Amino acid sequence: MKPLVSALNAWSCIVISVFAIVILSFIGGLFQKNHHSMVGSVGDPPDGKAVAGSIFGAVIIYAGFLVFCGLQAYLNIRQSRRGAITLS
After folding, report:
1. Fewer CB within 10 Å, N or C, the chain?
2. What is the DSSP-derived secondary structure letter of residue 83?
3. What is the 8-class DSSP label of residue 14?
4. What is the DSSP secondary structure assignment for residue 78, as one 8-state letter?
5. Rounded to 5 degrees, what are φ and ψ at 2?
6. Looking at residue 85, what is its pLDDT?
């Protein structure tokens, strides 16, 4: 199987996905607990748990990106070592 994206794109996607998962999980946790820094002001959303659900949905999407980009990075590494499986 050949990679769909280059090695640089795959590794960049991995770094961005990990960063997004960590940051969004933290922010989602604050909303889920109705932390005063997230829902305590006048302009903030009144239902922190609903916002947390949306944020955790984004975390799941980024986890999917992480799996896809990890597979692409693995395929790029395998291809660069000339270990690609060929049918002959």
Report:
1. C
2. -
3. H
4. H
5. -100, 145
6. 59
Cα dihedral 54/25/16/40 (nearest 10): 70
pTM as predicted: 0.82
* Residue type at position 48: G
CA distance 47 to 55: 13
Closest CA to 13 of 72, 60, 57: 72
Q: How far is CA 36 from CA 42, 53, 56, in A?
A: 11, 18, 19
Phi, psi of 84 (to 5 degrees): -65, 140
State pLDDT tens for residues 24-80.
Answer: 999 999 999 988 888 877 787 888 899 999 999 999 999 999 999 999 999 988 887
Amino acid occupying residue 87: L
Q: Can you give the pLDDT at residue 46? A: 81
Look up residue 54 and give its two tokens.
């949306």
